[in-house]
């Protein structure tokens, strides 16, 4: 088996986990070099027995070490656009963590570049596309088993430790991460758009910070077992020391209501500090209903006129991050795509549409009014048509 020579820009915890999953499923890989002044993924790499290669100062120094079979981008979100363009200039296949970019302007510019042609293969780490349960959800919807999809109710509720990590990590700041929903649930909105089979037409949203705020005093800092709370994970680059005293400016809870162009309606509820964690999709169609429990990795389906017991599938393989084997599945998908054996489950354009959807949700929340998405989609389609200059 050919050894895959890899260059990494941003060797954080996420890219380190992806590399570990790649090795676990049979990749022969060598990280030849990396760019990261403080690689917090180092312990994960060491545990997996993967060398980090030569530490270099910047992407230009990294690309001078080429050629690479794959360039992996795991830098903070505000650097994705810059690093993607530099990697595309270099010309080797790219894997980039989600979200693909952080702003609408970056999205339109990237759409223009990708639509112009000539870019190397670009794979985005929307890892949920590789989950077995998600593949089955899409299959059931596409088969017509549910009839026409009418409405979707969805949640993502994080346990205190996960929410506390986000309140200390660089994702706490809009200037670095974009928003809570953009970084955390662009996965979900990618799938929702796929299930609905349309783009959002109108969006409303409400949210804010009421959990990780300095005005909450006497917050317990230990669990009932005596373990220290809110500090079990390294906060990483530009990390803050205290989840409640940080300079966090993104939401810690948020609701969204979406109406898609084909009249499918969606309600979404996110909270970053709950005692009963949940990531659930309830998809109601004219002829059937399904519930996908992404935390417990279970699917339940029943036809509307069926009085028997629902069909239940337990996929097992549960993990603390609720990826439940998706990292390994994505690693296989990436290998197949690089070998030309199968298409990667999600395209950069689908990733951009998911990102724009979440950005519109955040605009609706900030403005306190319903957002008409038509102008946004018109601007995006114009960018994809290359009617605007590539360097605009």
Give a written overview of the molecule.
With 392 residues, the protein is α/β, with parallel strands linked by helices. Helices cover 34% and strands 22% of the residues. The protein has twelve helices and 15 strands. It has helices at residues 13-24, 42-48, 59-63, 80-90, 104-115, 132-143, 160-168, 174-177, 180-196, 326-338, 348-367, 374-384; strands at 4-9, 29-35, 54-56, 70-73, 94-97, 122-125, 149-157, 200-208, 253-260, 265-271, 278-285, 288-293, 298-303, 311-314, 371-372. The strands form two sheets. The protein has a nine-stranded mixed beta sheet with strand order 14-13-12-11-7-10-9-8-15, with helices on one face. Strands 3-2-1-4-5-6 form a six-stranded parallel beta sheet, with helices on both faces. Strand 12 and strand 13 form a beta hairpin. Helix 1 (13-24) runs parallel beside helix 2 (42-48) and helix 5 (104-115) runs parallel beside helix 12 (374-384). The N and C termini lie far apart (43 Å).
Draw up the topology in text.
Layout: E1 4-9, H1 13-24, E2 29-35, H2 42-48, E3 54-56, H3 59-63, E4 70-73, H4 80-90, E5 94-97, H5 104-115, E6 122-125, H6 132-143, E7 149-157, H7 160-168, H8 174-177, H9 180-196, E8 200-208, E9 253-260, E10 265-271, E11 278-285, E12 288-293, E13 298-303, E14 311-314, H10 326-338, H11 348-367, E15 371-372, H12 374-384
């Amino acid at each position: 088996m050919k050894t895959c020579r890899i260059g990494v820009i941003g060797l954080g915890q996420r890219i380190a986990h992806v590399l570990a999953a790649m090795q676990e499923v049979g990749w022969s890989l060598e990280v030849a070099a990396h760019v990261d002044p403080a690689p917090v993924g180092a312990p994960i790499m060491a545990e997996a027995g993967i060398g980090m290669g030569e530490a270099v100062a910047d992407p230009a120094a990294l690309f001078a070490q080429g050629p690479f079979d794959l360039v992996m981008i795991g830098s903070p979100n505000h650097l994705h656009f810059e690093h993607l363009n530099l990697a595309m200039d270099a010309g080797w296949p790219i894997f980039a963590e989600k979200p693909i970019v952080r702003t609408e302007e970056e999205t339109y510019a990237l759409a223009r570049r990708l639509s112009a042609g000539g870019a190397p293969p670009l794979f985005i780490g929307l890892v949920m596309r590789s989950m077995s349960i998600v593949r089955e959800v899409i299959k059931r919807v596409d088969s017509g088993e549910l009839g026409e999809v009418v409405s979707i109710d969805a949640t993502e509720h994080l346990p205190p430790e996960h929410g506390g990590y986000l309140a200390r990590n660089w994702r706490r700041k809009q200037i670095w991460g974009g928003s809570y929903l953009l970084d955390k649930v662009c996965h979900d909105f990618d799938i929702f758009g796929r299930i609905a089979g349309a783009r959002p037409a109108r969006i409303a949203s409400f949210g804010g910070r009421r959990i990780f705020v300095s005005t909450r005093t006497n917050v317990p800092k230990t669990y009932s077992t005596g373990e220290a709370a809110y500090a079990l994970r390294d906060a990483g680059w530009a990390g803050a020391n205290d989840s409640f005293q940080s300079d966090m400016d993104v939401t810690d809870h948020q609701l969204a209501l979406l109406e898609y162009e084909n009249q499918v309606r969606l309600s979404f509820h996110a909270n970053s500090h709950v005692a009963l964690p949940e990531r659930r999709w309830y998809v109601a169609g004219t002829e059937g209903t399904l519930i996908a429990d992404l935390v417990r990795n279970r699917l339940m389906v029943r036809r509307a006129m069926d009085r028997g017991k629902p069909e239940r599938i337990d996929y097992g393989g549960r993990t603390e991050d609720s990826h439940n084997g998706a990292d390994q599945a994505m690693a296989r998908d990436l290998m197949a795509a690089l070998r030309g054996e199968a298409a990667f489950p999600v395209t950069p354009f689908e990733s951009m549409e998911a990102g724009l959807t979440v950005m519109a949700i955040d605009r609706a929340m900030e403005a306190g009014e319903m957002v008409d998405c038509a102008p946004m989609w018109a601007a995006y389609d114009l960018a994809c048509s290359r009617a605007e200059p590539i360097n605009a």
